[in-house]
Amino acid sequence: MTDEEQQTHPTISKTEIPDSENTPLSLTFRLEEPKDYREVEELTREAFWNGFQPGANEHYILHKLRQHPDYLPDLSFLAISHEVCPDTGEVKEVIVGSIAYSKSKVIPLTEDRETLETVTFGPISVHPSYKRRGVGTAMMQHTANIAKEKGYPAIVIYGDPNYYSRVGFRLGEGFDMRNPKNKYAVALQVMILQNDLPLQRLSGRYKESPAFDEFDQVEFEAFDASFPEKVKKSGLATQARFQFLISLVYPPIKAFHWVK
Ligand SMILES: CC(C)(COP(=O)(O)OP(=O)(O)OC[C@H]1O[C@@H](n2cnc3c(N)ncnc32)[C@H](O)[C@@H]1OP(=O)(O)O)[C@@H](O)C(=O)NCCC(=O)NCCS
Question: 162-180 burial string, b = 16+ CB within 10 Å, else e?
Fold first, then answer.
């Protein structure tokens, strides 16, 4: 594909991101296809391994999500690194990242307003060898632009505000957005995609797809056993950070006042 075609093709774009050694990392994005599923599940497992808990289950969550009607394959992209073999000059394509989207909603607190149909990404994964080279940021920017073009009003996620605030996410609390149990949650964040979205429409209870509730422990263990064995570790700082973040949940203490 020529550079010109890449610029006009709706599902692929090219970006150059400097890596830690100042060598340009040549990235393109393309939609995930069924032939990629297993490789992407392996990548997801590697990316999350021991990050939030001993081991990981996000590769199973992704596997289940793809089978659910709320999954959005037209927003679920892969980041591909194009690498030149120094000996042969041959260009190799390596899948280095994945971002999966699904439908979500914000249910208003009063019956006189309509539910806001939003989108959510997750799992988002970058292969450990390619982390901190801008791949995650580039995947979010690429897919947010496409979600905006498709007319979605906002992306809503749970994640670490330290990371997501850098790419334009803001705390849900600032818009009176609550979790399904009607509490504010520090991890709950929103990226507004449409300038004309009345902000009051973000006020309400965020509900991710029921696909995320369909976790079957027995099925998960059998699925995970089909991947290579890896050592599980506990007591890691990233796991403690995760527990801390998900504990930051508190009830709204007064009626929310919109600034005019
Ligand atoms: C999160 C993830 C997708 C980010 O991708 P990436 O390509 O490494 O991110 P970028 O290069 O665009 O940005 C890197 C910056 O974000 C920070 N960062 C990355 N993950 C973070 C996290 N979970 N919390 C806080 N900061 C984070 C890094 O410290 C780095 O900042 P620094 O350079 O100042 O140290 C990747 O690290 C990953 O796959 N992690 C494991 C899976 C995961 O945690 N997914 C998100 C679940 S909410």
Answer: eebeeeebbbbbebbbbbe
